[in-house]
Amino acid sequence: MPETRVIVNLSNRHIHVSKEDLAALFGPGHKLTRTKDLMQPGQYACEEVVTVRGPKGSLDNIRILGPERKETQCEILASDVFKLGVSGCPTRESGQLDGSFPFEIIGPAGTLKKTRGLIIAKRHVHFDPESAQRFGVADKELVSLRVGEERAAVFENVVCRVSESYALECHLDFDEGNAVGIGSGSHGTVIKK
């Protein structure tokens, strides 16, 4: 019988920046300051934070996650849409920025207007290939995820992301976690369709 239990960690709003944008926001030659390693290999939280602005408002202290990326993207919560004034901001997998929203980033050394890159992160489970085999799932497959106890719920349309560079971990965002009364380090049950 396939494995079904997976650790669930909650993801807050955050931003990934390109090398060029990091220099524009923090000054030429600035290097990211690692403060905490994340569960995904090579990924880490940084000391650096920025302000993200939309048409109606802004969000302060948005943490940068390292390492630098090819393209800057900001992942917000669905509940942030109203404060920023970005109704219709799309839910996307990380890196899938076609049709994403424009936004502004304010750093200590400069401000950038991005024509795209603002998304709500799609819920997903990271699998290394061995774990994917144990769970009987394939890359890009959609599964359901049962989480919580007192306020338990089943989340639909959870993307399986399989790569040699991943560690087994599910990512829900803070809105989703709060809705079902769970925190990081909880567990969920993967349900194949």
What does this structure look like?
The protein has helices at 19-26, 80-84, 129-135, 174-180; strands spanning 5-11, 14-16, 34-37, 44-53, 58-66, 73-76, 91-92, 101-106, 111-121, 124-127, 142-147, 153-162, 169-173, 186-191. The chain has 193 residues and is mainly beta. The radius of gyration is 17 Å and the shape is globular.
What is the topological layout?
Layout: E1 5-11, E2 14-16, H1 19-26, E3 34-37, E4 44-53, E5 58-66, E6 73-76, H2 80-84, E7 91-92, E8 101-106, E9 111-121, E10 124-127, H3 129-135, E11 142-147, E12 153-162, E13 169-173, H4 174-180, E14 186-191
Parallel strand pairs: 1-13, 2-5, 6-9, 7-9, 10-12
Antiparallel strand pairs: 1-14, 2-6, 3-4, 4-5, 4-8, 8-9, 10-13, 11-12, 11-14
Question: How far apart lie the N and C ends?
Answer: 15 Å
Dominant shape = globular
Name the beta content range.
Answer: over 45%
- The total of beta strands comes to 14
Strand order of the largest sheet: 1-13-10-12-11-14
The string of secondary-structure elements, in order, is EEHEEEEHEEEEHEEEHE
Number of helical runs?
4
Averaged pLDDT: 97
Major sheet: 6 strands, mixed, barrel
As a whole number of angstroms, the C-alpha radius of gyration is: 17 Å
Q: Helix/strand/pairing class, anyone?
A: mainly beta
Q: Total domains, how many?
A: 2
Outline the low-pLDDT stretches. Answer: none
Portion of residues within helices:
10-25%
